[in-house]
Amino acid sequence: MNFTPSVLSFILTAEAEVYGIPTKKPKFHQQVQPSPSPWSPWKVSENIVTCENNIIMQLFNRVAFVTGAAQGLGKAFSEALLNRGAKVCFTDIQVSKGKEVEKTYSDKYGQDRVLFLHCDVSSSASLANSFKDAVSKFGHIDLMVNNAGIADESRLRDMVNINLIGAIEGSMLAVEHMRKDKGGKGGVVINIASTAGLTGVYFVPSYCASKFGLVGFHLSWASNPYNSQMGLQFGCLCPAFTDTDILNQKEKQMLYFEDGQRITKHLGINRVEKVVQGFLQMVESENCNGDIITITAKEDIQYSRRASSKMSHL
Ligand SMILES: NC(=O)c1ccc[n+]([C@@H]2O[C@H](COP(=O)([O-])OP(=O)(O)OC[C@H]3O[C@@H](n4cnc5c(N)ncnc54)[C@H](O)[C@@H]3O)[C@@H](O)[C@H]2O)c1
């Protein structure tokens, strides 16, 4: 079917809005400049270490725990953190893949900085045990990244268990471990949601529901007036379609499969590197508490919400 340019533009705009891609500035959007780069000289503090190449790194020797990280975004986030001198425990249900990545990262960044553990985020016990093992190896956790996720409309209960309950339980383990009022060192919790957690998407309604739930959880914790005294920050990353295996859905995993495929094609697909860039912007910002960053192929990296309270500890 051929469309005139104006009709095509109307369709694309409508579809973009359906998928949550901001085509015009929504009311709550507060686009602000990202925090000053941690590389800038004024950021020097006791928490920031100068590395061999004279780059000032605030992630140096920080310890991260990343779920669902044997491949895709979690794997890329883990490598980005290692590359900045952090120590990373990355976890997944895919053990052989995870072990392979562990070998590669250990060879590149050092055995003492890398740990792969089996962790099924849909099991409270598995999450708690792997978190405990990571603390045993590294002493503590500074950064919790709840990334594990699936997109499969035919596995509703699994999807809610993994995408929502897994991320909530992961966050709560981190909160209990990190909170300064209970002897912790403070820390940052990043939840990986989606633009589908900000706007309804008719071809993946249950996925959307799980991600909306996660955004609600993030916003609630981010608004906690005691975060400052607990030394906690909550950030939320919302990528749109990104070039990972999660996009290789089968027909039964999506409603209106053809619409989904067509809309994905129209809206474009993020490169993983772009999402990693948004992730680093968040974890390296002076204060990410309350931030929601969206990453879309057309609009790039944007802050859709930004917290105003000042807090810095990473
Ligand atoms: N790629 C996208 O288009 C996109 C867009 C928005 C949000 N996201 C979100 O990004 C996150 C990462 O996804 P991705 O794109 O890298 O996809 P991916 O499929 O490549 O990676 C997901 C990882 O989660 C793991 N996993 C699945 N079930 C698990 C469980 N029960 N316990 C632990 N790990 C489990 C998988 O083994 C896999 O390694 C997900 O939360 C996803 O919803 C992805």
Automatic annotation (TrEMBL):
The keyword Magnesium does not apply. Pfam families: adh_short (PF00106). Keywords: Oxidoreductase. GO terms for molecular function: 15-hydroxyicosatetraenoate dehydrogenase activity; 15-hydroxyprostaglandin dehydrogenase (NAD+) activity. It catalyses: 15-oxo-(5S,6R)-dihydroxy-(7E,9E,11Z)-eicosatrienoate + NADH + H(+) = (5S,6R,15S)-trihydroxy-(7E,9E,11Z)-eicosatrienoate + NAD(+); resolvin D1 + NAD(+) = 17-oxoresolvin D1 + NADH + H(+); resolvin E1 + NAD(+) = 18-oxo-resolvin E1 + NADH + H(+); prostaglandin E2 + NAD(+) = 15-oxoprostaglandin E2 + NADH + H(+). The keyword Transmembrane helix does not apply. InterPro entries: NAD(P)-bd_dom_sf, Sc_DH/Rdtase_CS, SDR_fam. Catalyzes the NAD-dependent dehydrogenation (oxidation) of a broad array of hydroxylated polyunsaturated fatty acids (mainly eicosanoids and docosanoids, including prostaglandins, lipoxins and resolvins), yielding their corresponding keto (oxo) metabolites. Decreases the levels of the pro-proliferative prostaglandins such as prostaglandin E2 (whose activity is increased in cancer because of an increase in the expression of cyclooxygenase 2) and generates oxo-fatty acid products that can profoundly influence cell function by abrogating pro-inflammatory cytokine expression. This is 15-hydroxyprostaglandin dehydrogenase [NAD(+)]. It comes from Lymnaea stagnalis (Great pond snail). The lineage of its organism: Eukaryota, Metazoa, Spiralia, Lophotrochozoa, Mollusca.
